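INFO batch 0412 | record 1 of 1 | parsing
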Amino acid sequence: MDYFTRRGDKLICLLCNKYCHLDKGQIGLCGVNKNVGDHIECLVYGYPTAMNIDPVEKKPLYHFLPQTKTFSIGTVGCNFRCSFCQNHSLSQDKKIKTDKYYSPEDIVSLAKTNNCESISFTYNEPTIFYPYAKDIALKAKKQGIKTIYVSNGFESIEVIQDMKEVIDAVNIDLKCFNEKYYRSLGGKLSEVLENLKEFKKSGIWLEITTLIVPTKNDSYEELKEIANFIKNELGEDTPWHISAFHPDFKELNLPRTSIESLKMAYNLGHELGLNYVYIGNSNFENSTICEKCNKVMIKRTYFNTIENNIINKRCSNCDALMPGIYE
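INFO prediction complete | emitting tokens
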């Protein structure tokens, strides 16, 4: 795809839903995409700021290649300004370090050398470096390596459509169900919800995460709206990860998420018909249970898998097909 369109003397960036109208020499709100005259250049292309090897469960993805490693990369910059961002040292930084260049081939080679079955675009918002991520993903496919997007869900429709057959799995943060609060973070709830529906239709494996922030999005009513949206619009088999907040960035005065809030959201999700609800960042056991026979399919503590009873994508007890990508 072209990552821009022209309107008069301006170029419109097509990477995210902000559709920045940029004069020549101007950089978008993300801080990393610049109108250089005849195109928009992604300034962080080839310059990841963070690279790590993680269990895929840490993304979090629980129904995608369990018990495998993923090569995680991120750059600086973001199209959101979340006050509670736990990766703010990357997402809110606009200083691009260009001392070491990593080509898409370099990233794929590092993933392969470290026996990673996937590459994750994570830490900051990957849609702002989609040109780089896409080139990596296409190279990775040729090596049998899958790719993952961990995103705030504010991609442009053009990027979502382009991601089909390119990206294999996404975990999207559904941060709240309040339009006013979403706007304070830099996004729009209505557009994130429409994007989630597009991701579901795209065939890309989808899991959802909600960070429960005390006093911001932790009411029974709001969590019920989130769970109902997932069930009714994305499907009962779409995994919902509930994450615990800890004070960070500009929200140092808020308390940690209470155990009671986590349990309330967990129980609510199940009561409303979601088959796979998980509590992250806590001591809770995060087992995947077959919704047909209630046998534990995958037993986990934190990001470690203790037991895996899925055989050929099916429950080893009742032979029910387990939703997800397992090989």
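INFO post-check: The two ends are 29 Å apart (CA to CA).
INFO record closed
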